Amino acid sequence: MVRLLEYNHLFAVGTIFAFLDAWNIGANDVANSWTTSVSSRSVTYLQAMCLASVMEFGGAVGVGARVADTIRTKVVNTDLYAETPGVLMLGMVCAIIASSVYLTFATKVGMPVSTTHSIMGGVIGMGIASVGANGIQWVGSGSGTAVVNSGVVQVFLAWILAPGISGIFGAIIFTITKYAVMLRSRPVYKALLTVPVYFGITASLLTMLLLWKGGSYAVTLTDPQVVGVIVGVGAAWGIFIAIFLCPWLYCKVIRDDWTIKAYHLPLGPLNLRRPDAGPPPPGHCGTRNFYQGHLTQEELDTRRARAVVSEEAPRGQGVTDEEATLGNGSPELKGNNATNTASVSDDGVVNNPARRGQLLPPEGIQNEKQPEKQKSIVGPKPDGKWYSGSVLFWYFKYAIFRGVDVDIVNSQKDKRTLLTGDLEAMHARVAHYDNKTEYMFTFLQVMTAATASFTHGANDIANAIGPYATIFQIWNDGALPEKGKADVPIWILVFGGAALIIGLWTYGYNIMRNLGNRITLHSPSRGFSMELASATTIILATRLKLPVSTTQCITGATVGVGLCSGDWRTINWRMVLWIYAGWVITLPCTGLISGLLMAFIIHSPRW
């Protein structure tokens, strides 16, 4: 084997764009996976970034596949390049360039796309340019699911299968949760009873995912043993949660013990013997308001009616601007005469001769505490030359942490594009459930998202850098990888994992603020249902060897859960259409870029 030193430039260019491709996977694919947790307020953006970084990198380097398909989707026969491995190396460089350029554009405009389909389109384009359309495998060979789990046909099938199946699972899971817990009397007690059950089911499903969609580790268990492991892990985890987490939740949520901390979790049942904590100190926030900033239909109608009355009132008569709103928007009756003679009717109308017709907001709006503005991590830019230490450090913080300073949830409510529509009206049609009950599901959602993130790192990272591993192996050995398999050195896994994390931290916020609540209103119970449905779909597809995309699964589950509100208007269909359009144009766009680039190079004159 002879290293192809004459192709050093191809290896260098491939390395640069492979980094950009992995960077975009973090900024687009991984960010899209964590949007649900952040939009539900189960975790903050900073917490999501930390969890995703640890789980993705741990999955990629710890159990990531050490051997990857030269072309994962098997759309081009690599044997056609046996005599000219350098051409395949060039083709992979063109495919990575096309994929990274397109993903950069999609991430910039906030369009979640399938990164697997992106690199696949690049491979198809370079394949047509180099060996012709007959060299492309349009349909898989064999019988059964083998016909659709390889070849170009798998992309078209994924457009239907992934969102459809995950949407059905999402609707089933949330419907059960809705009628078994959320709409029952004393729902917080029902949630406490179901938490161990849901944790056990989630652990069993995620164990299936790790066993059937594993990375470098080999599972040598028989089918009965696999079933035993799945059931055993779920039961053991459910019992563990019942012993340690449930008593802690009972004290914190039901008994309103504001003194209990996370480090009290290991005490388990002993927490039930804690004395009464008494009233909380002034300024204590209590349970997080997961619906903060989202109005009910009654509150929205009242606010808009008040705005109409204020606009129609003649200037200088009736309500002045200063009297109309004060503080957080609630009216205040000013003046002794107004205060003494005013009364408020049941429908929120002020019965005051001087202010007749003015509307008061519902009590929930009047008393809602406004969220405190979070402290900026980046901070203001210091004075000095651009090359001074303090300014350079500020630029570093700005590049890495500027997303942390972005209020993701509130950014999702900004009406900056035609895609958002009337988000207030859409959110108002969604039912608001008990906050304490919602809090119970935050732990489930974090567990589901973190484990799915670990599995994503174990599988999708190696698959995404498969073309780069092929470039390296051809450059290093001077020959094609044997049997269509490229060895993946550990440094390539570290390289891909690091690029992914950098992309997630530096630009993941852009995808997050364009999704989540812009599709439908999120809450922990809904978010857990979405993520569990997505994981279930991936598990089922893995077992049946059907092609699905993580991006498409979570989008379908979001729509399925949103429709459980009983009103199709609770879904932003314009945003759904925008996302679907992104899936459809991914393959032709990357294929066109890669094909044109490949054709331009191989048909250029030689000196």
Task: Describe the SSE topology.
Layout: H1 8-39, H2 45-62, E1 67-69, H3 85-108, H4 115-131, H5 153-182, H6 187-212, H7 223-254, H8 297-312, H9 321-324, H10 336-341, E2 343-344, E3 350-351, H11 363-367, H12 389-401, H13 408-411, H14 423-428, H15 435-464, H16 466-477, E4 485-487, H17 490-514, H18 524-544, H19 550-563, H20 573-602
Antiparallel strand pairs: 1-4, 2-3
Provide an overview of this structure.
- This protein has 607 residues and is mostly helical.
- Among the domains are: 5-173 and 458-524 and 546-602, no CATH class; 297-367, no CATH class; 369-406, no CATH class.
- It is 60% helix and 2% strand.
- It contains 20 helices and 4 strands.
- It has helices at 8-39, 45-62, 85-108, 115-131, 153-182, 187-212, 223-254, 297-312, 321-324, 336-341, 363-367, 389-401, 408-411, 423-428, 435-464, 466-477, 490-514, 524-544, 550-563, 573-602; strands at 67-69, 343-344, 350-351, 485-487.
- The strands form 2 sheets. Strands 1-4 form a two-stranded antiparallel ribbon.
- A hairpin with a 5-residue loop joins strand 2 (343-344) and strand 3 (350-351).
- Residues 318-371 have low confidence and may be disordered.
- Residues 302-381 are annotated as: Disordered.
- Belongs to the inorganic phosphate transporter (PiT) (TC 2.A.20) family.
- One of its GO terms (molecular function) is phosphate transmembrane transporter activity.
- One of its GO terms (cellular component) is membrane.
